[in-house]
Amino acid sequence: MTRAVIALGANLGDRASTLAAAADALGQLPHTTLVALSSLYESAAVKPHGVDLSAPEYLNAVALIDTDLSADELLAAIAELEIAFGRVRHERWGDRTLDLDIIVYGSVEQADDHLTLPHPRAHERSFVLVPWLEVDPLAELPRGSVASLAGALAHEVRPYQAEAVN
pLDDT tens for residues 141-155? Predict the structure, then answer.
């Protein structure tokens, strides 16, 4: 089994329910076990030009899974999950019902047309680092420890507070 880190995000629809169901679905993939799921965190939408405060905010989490799927098989499986949860790709980094990214896959380093591991922007994304730190305090990336990287960016996210229903 290989330990993989999966980032989950959504900024359309019932974000919290979608992320919970997506985490369950990750654990139901063949030869895969959901090991841990972080708390939920909110963050501003990031578009190719930078932060977009006019777009709906994202809800984010990180899941740790153990899997016998190869990295490419896992990538294909999570793409199918995104579609099953209603993701439509109209624009790069557009609003979405579900976004799943492989952040790391064991110690694999890979860069091809389909997949780059570790994720090339993980080190600069608070919405990945802060929840990842919660479930794996000793995690490392080539650019440093997740703890030190998350500490520098923690101000960009906040713990999710579910709205009270009257």
Answer: 998 999 999 999 999
